[in-house]
Write a structure and sequence with these properties.
Blueprint (H helix, E strand, L loop, with lengths): L18 E4 L5 E6 L5 H9 L3 H8 L8 H8 L6 E8 L2 E11 L12 E8 L8 H15 L4 E6 L4 H8 L4 E7 L2 E7 L4 H23 L3 E5 L8 H11 L5 E5 L9 E2 L2 E4 L2 H4 L5 E4 L6 H10 L4 E4 L9 H16 L3 E3 L5 E4 L6 E4 L7 E8 L2 H13 L4 E6 L8 H10 L5 E6 L5 H12 L4 E5 L20 H10 L3 E3 L2 H13 L7 E6 L2 H13 L3 E2 L3 E2 L6 H13 L5 E6 L2 E2 L5 E2 L3 H14 L5 E5 L5 H6 L53 E2 L2 H21 L8 H4 L3 H12 L8 E2 L2 H9 L8 E3 L3 H11 L3 E5 L13 E5 L2 H15 L2 H4 L1 E5 L5 E10 L3 E8 L2 H4 L4 E5 L4 H9 L18 H17 L3 E11 L4 E3 L2 E5 L17
Parallel strand pairs: 5-6, 9-10, 9-13, 10-12, 13-14, 14-15, 18-19, 18-20, 20-21, 21-22, 23-24, 23-25, 23-26, 26-29, 29-30
Antiparallel strand pairs: 1-2, 2-3, 3-4, 4-5, 6-8, 7-8, 11-12, 16-17, 16-19, 27-28, 31-41, 32-35, 33-34, 33-35, 36-37, 36-39, 37-38, 39-40, 39-41
């Protein structure tokens, strides 16, 4: 007997449907199931809806809800009848409801898979993307409950609602019946619906960041009555930066009638201000923050920068205080930077915001900087300032309980004032989303990342996010696959950022070296070789070279078509009296800048030793516009640019495009200078690798169509369901050898059978069945894939050899019960490799490849790519390991069949991508011969699919 809805296990309140979302205008709201306790909220909400909106909802005048209506709209079984509400400040601003129906349109239960859906949005909140967000969430709920289609009746005049359905990206049908538009939506996600969802997510999250960085008014809460203290410091910095908006000082301890503090209006609460406040900087003790948040939320503040400490960095109690802070702020539609933040800076001339503890605002520039550490932020700001670089924006997010680096990637992706994004990260709250956003952003502008806490195995205090189990080397490989420039130190991040912000991207790895020191030129040459660049022999201008000689040599190098970049080395001139003359740095800088401006657009970097004024003069610039003639990183919506001009001087700043291949610049004519050759070369090498990635990203790889003809996706799904059983163990289960062979065969992966040999006679029988020659090997866990321990005997040509090998194994290593020996047919000789795929809860599905044995296990020579892998990913995976030459005819050997290996990698990738229940696959060894390959061993583990934080409806993370 089927349970009634009241008896259904789904009848319990589904708290996993609760979600915080960012709306189109950047504000936040909460989506949750409607409960029986919401009657008064529903009535109040309905009273604030216009008569026109009510008419569109009910197709007739419907001024008020009856008691029966209220009961029906607040009582749900969460299976066949579901209602969701959008709330701000605890009050409803929108609702949606579905009722399962049968083919005749009457109420029904499962297995009926269609439902009627209807929305109602308060007029004051229409146009904020509320209905679109609700549709994503109610569709996900419906799919979870076995509903595959939505039916909706909409009046023709209700254009807004028709547009919500039309723009969702779902497959749909539309007809006109009885004076209304009848819509049917297929709820199966499509490539278009996912693209629509992510585009809306990007716009909303970017807008939420923009509201924080460009407020029209700021209130600093916690401003002390006496000079000093955090609040007073922020207020002073805010005023010192020349903030273009209104500023207020707030402190509950201000005496009545306190007029101003530091020349700005002083109030005891935000509510007393009487004018709109866009941003509040909170600098009060942690125990007073809740009342401040309530004051801000109730008076329409859009965002908070919480400098207060005492949260997750202080342990369990602080972590709960931090969660409550986020819940409270989001309930009012506010986003938070912090807590324990250092602050934010926006150097735009229309804003000039320094809401931070940094005493001096950086110069305006085209570098965006995000850090999770105030100390690191101070260090980077100082380093950039010393080297004359400017910033577009600076954010030090502290514990980043809400706004994170992902949000700023969304913002910088389309920010026309930012050409390079620098991020110091200590944890990744949503690595899959970070990788996705970084790949998209890196396609139009460089993303440079320093990852702290790489080897601690845990997150820093205050960062309550999932901990990845994959090694740091794997994380680095996956970042590079996404186009992220990952460096090891903050100094390297600044070095690379300066080059990318001020110079065009190189067209290749060919480097010209010139200068007045032969020794420094040779050091630069060696550094280029170590980084995989192709340097030309250094050109020594001798120590008597004048600035004009440098100019002429640089112009000649830039004009050379066999050169992609130039490194200039310079040491002080030695005068007749033997003393170094360091005062001509400004003259040399002018000569180099003139040559670079007049020549073709190629990157130039300078290595100098004690050249007074050179670095500062090279960094000097007349404006914060992009350098003339440089191909700037693209904004996503820009129109294609004209062909690149022959020289920088002839060019204006072209419109940025996604297919452009050069980085942008923070100012005209700025050339980065480095005090060591290794630093300059490392920065240039990163630019070369990034430029190559950009060129490849312009024509992304694909999954070959031939896979579709040899893959049984539906049969595999049914087999997995059978293998897991009706009540699968959450920890999963390993498959037997035969089960793994059957599963892999459905994806075109053939595993050579291995027959058990519990005794000598069984081994002989197995060999006769397979046919000689055979291999005898142990499968005990401690001996598996350990030929070096003697657990494998190969090329056994007959029964006598097999019996001797069996006796040797058991005499040497243990009993048959301990060894678990098997007999297997010999494979053609080739290169032993290993192919693996696994799912990490934080990073997602990862495909790995290496040579079997010592190269991968001892030396860690393994390459990784994110799943799903394309044909290009598979090819790069094979070629990116250090031992790759073994596969391509090393020392005169016949090349291995890498095409077959690439196909195998694609099949394994497709398997784990299609079926998230396949949490790990290991094929070892895979013997790659000159023609074809043989999979000799396979292990597969199944488990209930882990939750995917990057799929499904948009939602903010909750830690």
């Amino acid at each position: 007997m089927e349970p009634t809805p009241e008896q259904s296990p789904h009848h319990a309140y589904p708290d996993h449907w609760e979600a915080d979302v960012v709306l189109r205008d950047g504000g936040t709201a909460r989506i949750r199931p409607i409960t029986t306790d919401d009657a008064e909220r529903l009535v109040s909400f309905y009273e604030q809806v216009s008569d026109e909106s009510k008419y569109y909802r009910f197709f007739a005048p419907y001024p008020r809800l009856s008691a029966r209506d209220v009961h029906r709209f607040t009582h749900h079984d969460y299976v066949d009848r579901v209602g969701l509400a959008v709330t701000i400040g605890g009050e409803f601003i929108a609702t949606v409801r579905f009722d399962r129906i049968n083919e005749q349109g009457r109420p029904a239960s499962a297995p009926a898979d269609e439902a009627e859906v209807a929305f109602l949005v308060q007029d004051a909140h229409q146009g904020r993307g509320v209905a679109s967000a609700l549709l994503e969430h109610i569709a996900a709920v419906a799919r979870e409950r076995g509903i595959r289609r939505f039916a909706a009746e909409v009046l023709p005049a209700n254009n807004k609602m028709i547009k919500v359905f039309r723009d969702a990206g779902f497959t749909q049908q539309r007809s006109f019946e009885d004076g209304s538009v009848h819509l049917t939506l297929d709820l199966e996600p499509t490539a278009e619906s996912l693209a629509v969802q992510r585009a809306r997510e990007q716009r909303a999250e970017a807008r939420s960041v923009q509201r924080l960085l460009a407020p029209g008014s700021v209130a600093v809460i916690g401003v002390g009555r006496a000079p000093g203290g955090v609040g007073r410091t922020v207020l002073r910095n805010l005023l010192g930066s020349g903030f273009t908006g209104r500023t207020y000082a707030v402190n509950t301890s201000f005496a009545a009638g306190t007029g101003t503090v530091d020349g700005v209006p002083a109030h005891r609460s935000v509510g007393e201000i009487g004018e709109r406040v866009d941003l509040a900087v909170v600098a009060v003790p942690a125990d007073r923050v809740p009342e401040v948040v309530a004051d801000c939320g109730e008076n329409g503040v859009q965002g908070l920068v919480v400098l207060s400490a005492g949260y997750a960095e202080r342990g369990t109690e602080g972590r709960e205080r931090q969660r409550e802070l986020v819940r409270q702020a989001r309930s009012y539609g506010m986003r938070i930077i912090g807590p324990n933040a250092f602050g934010i800076i926006n150097t735009s001339g229309t804003v000039r915001l320094n809401a931070s503890l940094a005493p001096e605002s950086p110069k305006a520039g085209r570098i965006g900087l995000f850090t999770q550490s105030g100390a690191i932020g101070i260090a980077v700001l100082s380093g950039l300032h010393r080297r004359g670089a400017g910033l577009s924006a600076f954010i030090s997010a502290g514990n980043r309980a809400d706004v994170s680096g992902n949000d700023f990637l969304q913002y910088w992706y389309e920010d026309q004032d930012t050409d390079v994004a620098l991020l110091y990260l200590e944890s990744l709250g949503n690595p899959r989303k970070f990788t996705r956003l970084a790949r998209r952003t890196a396609a139009v502008k460089p993303v440079v990342v320093v990852k702290g806490a790489r080897h601690s195995g845990s997150n820093p205090p205050g960062h309550a996010v999932p901990v990845s189990r994959i090694p740091d080397a794997t994380v680095s490989a996956l970042m590079r696959q996404a186009g992220v420039i990952r460096v090891d130190t903050v100094t390297e991040m600044v070095d690379v950022g300066l080059l990318l912000a001020g110079q065009p991207l190189p067209d290749g790895p060919r480097v010209a070296i010139l200068g007045n020191s032969e020794s420094l030129g040779l050091l630069t040459y060696d550094a280029c070789m170590a980084e995989g660049l192709r340097p030309r022999p250094p050109r020594d201008l001798t120590t008597v070279a004048s600035p004009q000689d440098f100019r002429d040599a640089l112009a000649e190098a830039l004009a050379d078509r066999t050169c992609d970049a130039v490194i200039v080395t310079a040491i002080p001139w030695v005068g007749e009296n033997g003393e170094a003359e360091t005062g001509d740095g400004e003259v040399l800088a002018a000569a180099l800048r003139e040559a670079a401006a007049d020549g073709p657009a190629k990157p130039v970097a300078v290595v100098h030793v004690e050249m007074g004024g050179l670095a500062q003069a090279l960094a000097a610039a007349a404006s914060t516009a992009a350098p003339r003639g440089t191909r700037r990183p693209a904004g996503p919506a820009a129109a294609p640019s004209p062909p690149a001009p022959a020289s920088r001087a002839e060019a204006g700043a072209p419109a940025p495009t996604a297919t452009d291949t050069r980085a942008g610049g923070s100012s005209a004519g700025r050339i980065p200078a480095y005090p060591a050759a290794e630093r300059a070369v490392r920065a240039l090498a990163e630019a070369v690798r990034y430029a190559q990635w950009r060129r490849q990203a312009a024509a992304p790889g694909r999954v070959p169509e031939f896979l579709d003809d040899t893959i049984d996706e539906h049969g595999t799904a049914a087999l997995i369901e059978t293998l897991l059983g009706p009540s699968p163990d959450p920890r999963g289960r390993p498959l037997t050898h035969d089960e793994a062979r059957e599963l892999l065969a459905r994806y075109g992966v053939t595993v050579r059978p291995a027959l058990p040999a519990p005794d000598r006679e069984a081994a002989v029988a197995a060999a006769e069945k397979i046919g000689y020659p055979v291999a005898l090997k142990t499968t005990a866990p401690h001996l598996r894939h350990r030929a070096d321990l003697g657990g494998v005997r190969l090329d056994l040509a007959g029964e006598d050899a097999l019996r001797r090998a069996y006796d040797e194994l058991t005499d040497l290593l243990g009993t048959p019960a301990e060894l678990r020996p098997v007999v297997q047919a010999m494979a053609p000789r080739g290169v032993d490799t290993v192919v693996r795929a696994s799912i990490d809860a934080a990073a997602g599905a990862v495909l790995s490849f290496g040579l079997a044995g010592a190269p991968s296990e001892l030396l860690g020579d393994t390459a990784h790519r994110l799943v799903p892998a394309t044909d290009r990913d598979a090819a790069e995976l094979i070629r990116s390991i250090k031992a790759a030459p073994v596969l391509f005819g090393w020392r005169g050997a016949a090349p291995a069949d890498t095409a077959a290996l690439e196909e195998l990698l694609l099949r394994v990738s497709r398997l784990v991508d299609d079926h998230p229940e396949v949490v790990s696959v290991a094929l070892e060894p895979v013997v790659v011969a000159t023609h074809g390959l043989t999979v000799l061993g396979a292990s597969v583990r199944l488990a209930p699919p882990p939750a995917r934080s990057d799929l499904g409806p948009r939602r903010l993370p909750s830690y």
